[in-house]
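[step 3/7] fold_predict: job queued, chain A
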Amino acid sequence: MKTRISILFALLAAFGIAGCSDYLDLTPTDRITDKSVWEKEEYTDLYVNNFYEYLNIYGPFGSEQFNGNLTEGLTDTFKYGSTQLGSRAGDCNHYVFSPEVISPSGNLLDCWAPTYERIRRINEFLDAMTKYSHYSSEVNTRYEAQARFFRAFLYFQLARRYNGRAIIYTSLDQIVRDIDLASAAATWQFIYDDLMFAAQNLPDEWTSAHKGRTTSAAAYAMLSRVMLYAERWNDAKAAAEMVLASGKYSLTGKYADAWKGGNPESILEFNYLVTGPNHSWDRYMSMFWEYPNGSASTPTQEMVEEYEAADGTPVDWSPWHTAEGTTQYPPYEQLEPRFAATILYNGATWQGKTVENCAIVKRDEQIKPARVNIGTYTDYDSEPYPYGKTVTGYYLRKLRQESLTDLSNVASSSTWVEIRLAEVYLNHAEACYQLGLSGDAVQSLKAVRDRVGLPTDSSLSGEALFAALRHERKVELSYEGHLWWDMRRWRLAQQDYTGYRTHGIKIDLIDIYVDGYQAGNYKFTYVDCDGQDRKFLPRMYSLPVPDSELQNNSKIRQFDEWNF
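[step 4/7] structure written:
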């Protein structure tokens, strides 16, 4: 939403908004109760804009999902190339090789204190509205619906981390020492109630002056997501059907446009500006020759092999599973469209250049045309910080801004789409599957696959249907921040993310000269990108309550699995 966010920060500074405390402080404050916020709707709108920033903070462009890392780095789909601790460096490797380091005293996936601080701000806003607003009940309800949407969004961030439980707090008279975690049922119901209030009271569309704000359909779409985690299948199904029945959204013609925003598939998005707010996604995902300090974070061969052929048949990758290497070119161009839209492979085109993800070799400058590496391969553990180099033979294309060519001087301004129609279809499909409505599940699955020209087996049911749903979420929603959380809520993470390693394709350039020109060939070698097994501990299905909270809240108790 481009509605004057930069002005918002100046307004917040005037009210003295402070940073987060070390623990959940629910002490009432008067920091936002100044009557001037409620003198004009323009001022109130500026303050509400602050809530929309949460879409950025908890998304892959922000820092709150996993300390700036992608949670996909905890799965088989993404590999960070650094061996040294640090955000967008070796943190993910540390967590998958030695998850024992996660504890109540230190946890990079934790978002406890800042999230409750944001919830408090929303509660203060709602409290101030009852005291100072002179607007009509209709206008107040519109503000309340926006605030409760984002309060539900924040509580969802907590619930999916902490076993479905959270401290439910709405009154500014409550203090932290008096509140225990609510049950999972009560927590999910609280989130449901907030989202339903938002869905029933937000407009279907905003005027052009308020374009980009959350709508009734966005609240229903979010509810379809949240209720999957709550395992309230009927509620998830009903919410998804409200979005689908609205007729306001449609899948984009090209998958490559689906997450770019500003199109009929986008239900809720956060827009950035080059002048701010902006982000650094393209720098983090850059190739070696694009930016000197890229983070060397790349898709894995396991993810590549998840893609079907363009006709929907499986692809046999066994010829490339060889440590000796082969000169046979991989079937990249035979894969379904989502592959090339998501992953930069050796031979792909990027900014008008052909990508070569090869190990660096010396070249004879007298031979023309000279080759230029766009990407560069290096073995994992060969460099502490392999800035911008790939340890898998691939780079991530999805969510990147191809028009941005000066990464050193210009920040990224690509849109973050928080929720889009394809996810709603997949949420609906999963809810229908869980309710035994296989036919309806297949139809929603088919809607997503039809976009990329893939066939759908209409006879799917049972475990085969569930496997197809998991595959579709993994591919369609890749790198949008869903997979690791999905595997946890399905209780499949311990099974699938223990005792495995990720792999890549090392690409060596073999120079061949024809009539004085360099033609070139490649050798493709299957490589282990980890060097040791990964693991997922059962207690990671719930993250621990932070020690700082236990020390300041006499009512709260640590989860049993973290008492050791």
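[step 5/7] annotate
The radius of gyration is 24 Å.
The CA atoms of residues 503 and 528 lie 5 Å apart.
exit 0
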